[in-house]
Specification:
The structure is a single chain. By secondary structure, this protein is mostly beta strands. 2% of the residues lie in helices and 48% in strands. A hairpin with a 5-residue loop joins β8 and β9. The longest helix has 4 residues. The protein starts with 12 loop residues before the first strand and ends in a 6-residue tail after the last strand. The relative contact order is 0.15. The N terminus is likely disordered.
Length: 205
C-alpha cells in the first residue's frame, strides 16, 4: 500500500463548520489534508467564542496550533476506517495488518506523529483511508497498556493525591505518574493526552 500523496488522491468532501470539528476528523485546507488532534471552545473575556485547535498536516506531520471562528467553513473529508493490528516498526515505517483480509499496510512516522509513542505490539487500531484507498493515518484505542522503563524510586506511603513524578514508558513516552509507581510496573495510559489512568492489574497492594 502506497503512502498518502495529496496529488494522487481523489477526495470526497462535506461542507461543515469549524464548530463541528472534533478530535480525529480530517479536513482539506489550502490543498493540504489536516487532521484534528484537539479542538476546544474558548471564550476570551468579552470577545466571541473561538475554536482553539491542534492540527497536523497529514503528509508532512507538522503540528500547528490554530484559532478559527466557529462559523468558518471547512471541507470535511470522508474517511473510511478498517480495523487493523499493529505488527512492528522498522526505521520510520510502521506495519499494520487488516484483521479480516490479512492485507498489510505501511504507514510513515510523519503520518503517525506522536501516535508512534503509543504503539504497542499487537494493539488494535482503526486504519483511516480516503475514498480511493490511500492511507491517511490511524485512530488509536482510548487507552493502552505500557510498562514503566525508568522512573524515580517508589516513595513509601505515597498516595494518588501526591505531587507525582515523570516516568518513561517502554516506547519513550513520558507520563506523569503517582509517587508510588515503580519501574517495571504495567500501567494503563490514555492516548488522547498521554495521561496515567491506573495500574494495569488495578489490584490493591
Amino acid at each position: 500500500m502506497d503512502f498518502y500523496f495529496l496529488q494522487s488522491v481523489q477526495l470526497n468532501f462535506t461542507i461543515g463548520q469549524a464548530i463541528n470539528l472534533k478530535k480525529g476528523m480530517i479536513f482539506s485546507q489550502d490543498g493540504k489534508l489536516i487532521k484534528v488532534l484537539k479542538a476546544n471552545h474558548h471564550k476570551p473575556g468579552k470577545g466571541n467564542t473561538v475554536m482553539q485547535m491542534d492540527l497536523r498536516d497529514v503528509k508532512s506531520g507538522a503540528v500547528v496550533h490554530k484559532t478559527m471562528r466557529p462559523t468558518e467553513k471547512v471541507d470535511l473529508v470522508d474517511v473510511n476506517k478498517r480495523t487493523a493490528q499493529y505488527l512492528y516498526g522498522e526505521g520510520d515505517v510502521y506495519t499494520f495488518m487488516d484483521t479480516e483480509t490479512y492485507d498489510q499496510y505501511e504507514v510513515s512516522a510523519d503520518q503517525l506523529g506522536d501516535d508512534v509513542k503509543f504503539l504497542m505490539p499487537n494493539i488494535m487500531v482503526d486504519m483511516e483511508f480516503t475514498g480511493d484507498n490511500k492511507i491517511i493515518g490511524i485512530e488509536l484505542p482510548t487507552t493502552v497498556e505500557m510498562t514503566v522503563k525508568e522512573t524515580q524510586p517508589e516513595i513509601k506511603g505515597a498516595t494518588v493525591a501526591g505531587g507525582g513524578k515523570p516516568a518513561t514508558m517502554e516506547t519513550g513516552l513520558v507520563v506523569q505518574v503517582p509517587d508510588f509507581i515503580k519501574e517495571g510496573e504495567k500501567l494503563i495510559i490514555g492516548t488522547e493526552n498521554g495521561d496515567y489512568k491506573s495500574r494495569a492489574d488495578s489490584q490493591p497492594r
